[in-house]
Amino acid sequence: MEKNVTALEPSAEAVPGDKDSASKQIPPAAVARMTLYLRALNSLLAEGVERVSSDALAEASGVSSSTLRKDLSYVGSYGTRGVGYEVQYLSRHIAAALGLTHDWKVAIVGAGNLGKALARYGGFESRGFDVVAILDADPMVIGNEVGWLRVSDAANLELVLQRTGTNMVVLALPAAVAQDVCDRVINAGIRSILSFAPVLLQVPPHVNLRKVDMATELQILAYHAQRAQTPGQAL
C-alpha cells in the first residue's frame, strides 16, 4: 500500500507559481539546498509517499519552511493549496533544474585509496553520474581493476577523456601534480572539475571548479565542537 504524508499544505503557505521561474538564476546557496530537497524527495518516493507539505519537506531537509518555499520559487512552485507538493513531479523538476537529466560522464584521475573509493561508490549512478574511467600514473597501478573499471595510464589522459565522452573530471591527486593535471584536463575541453587535491587550483573563468577539503571541514567542526564545550558560549 502506498503511503501519503498526512500533513497537508496550509493555504496560507502556498507560494504562487511563477511562469518565468524556470529561467531564473538560482543563487549558489539555494543550489546547495536543492540537493537536500532532492535527496529528501527521493527518500519519500522510495517510501511510496505521493504528496508532502512544505513543513514536512523542510524538516526532512533541515531547513525552515520559508527558506524552502523561497528556494522552490526559483524553479517554479508546484504546491497546491490545502494539498501540498506532488513528490514525484517536484523531484523531476528539481533534477532538471540542477542539470541531472543530462548525460554526465565522469573520469577520476588518481587511483589511490580515495580515487578507488570514489570509483566504487554506487551512489553516483543513482544520481545521474556515470563513472566511465579512472586513471593513474603509477605503473604498479595501471591495468588494475577497480570495480568494473580498469585503471588507464594518465599519460593517455586526453585520449581517454575523448574516447569515453567524459564531461566531468574528479581530481584525487597529491598537491604537487594537481595543477599540471588540471591544466591538461582543461585543455582537453573539460569545463567541470571536482578537486580533492589539498591545494588551490587556478582555472580560467569559463571552468567550474569545486574543491572538497576534508581537513578544512574537520577544522570547522573542531571550532563548533570547542564552542559547544565552553560554558556560556552561544552556538
From TrEMBL:
Could you mention a single GO BP entry for this protein?
negative regulation of DNA-templated transcription
Q: Which residues bind DNA?
A: 36-75
Would you tell me the protein name for this molecule? Redox-sensing transcriptional repressor Rex
Q: Which PANTHER family match?
A: REDOX-SENSING TRANSCRIPTIONAL REPRESSOR REX (PTHR35786), REDOX-SENSING TRANSCRIPTIONAL REPRESSOR REX 1 (PTHR35786:SF1)
Organism the protein comes from: Arthrobacter terricola
Pfam families in UniProt: CoA_binding (PF02629), Put_DNA-bind_N (PF06971)
The membrane-spanning stretches of this chain are none
Q: Tell me which UniProt keywords the record has, alphabetically.
A: Cytoplasm, DNA-binding, NAD, Repressor, Transcription, Transcription regulation
- Protein family membership: Belongs to the transcriptional regulatory Rex family.
